[in-house]
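Researcher: Re-running this chain for the archive, since the previous output was lost when a drive failed. Same request as before.
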Amino acid sequence: MTGPPPAPALAPPAAGRPAPRVLPAASGQRAELARLRRADRPVYCGGDRRRLVALTFDDGPGPYTRLALKELRAAHAHATFFLVGRSIRAFPRRPLEEKHVGALGDHTATHPFLPALTARAMRRQLAEGQHAAQHAAGIAVRLFRPPYGSFTPAVTAAARHLGMVEVLWSVDSGDSLSGDFHVLAARMRRAIRPGAIVLMHENRGQTIRALRSILPWLRRHRLRPVSVPELLAADPPSRAQLRAGEAGCPAITSGPARRSSRSRR
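Model: Regenerated structure tokens:
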């Protein structure tokens, strides 16, 4: 497959405000998520004022979760894991480990295409996925990502009703399409900018290999990998960014189309 179109060169490490040494406390993160939840719009990225990046992993936990956690811990990096209820049943102890490396999110109970479901079935998918993650990790889950990035206003409203912010992404690693970790790493290097939310999947070996390349690259460019709540609290998207949706983000890669009445793809 061909890679994404070239992106403008990444600003040199000295550009922009540095990543904060001390990130906002948990109370500040909760407050920002509450504000974004009231905005009733999906979040695609943070701002671009601080050198922060949010790495996210979908579809876990799974057999590669242990390796992803090992790489993140070695790099002192935080991340966010969007978990599927049925996967939690297969790997019930992993969410306890993942919560110590960042944040957890709901990725539904069984990973269906939500717009095809009845309203009742859709709401149940969100509620059961959230409950499974909360029960396994013993923490409140305030983030939600729809499978395939496919959502409708009703999905966004259901997430808000359950106390969650709907989080999409601005950079797609493409690891669900390609098994070549060199291609994945090159795609992310071209696209990542301060404020980016990066989509990956923790159940693929090529993702782990790409992660081993990306984490040192982020450090060289003084980009700090943080959780989604940390990014949004330290460098929140502006109102204009929220209104613009995906188009309001610092960088966008090509990737699978998201089917939504609000999506621009």
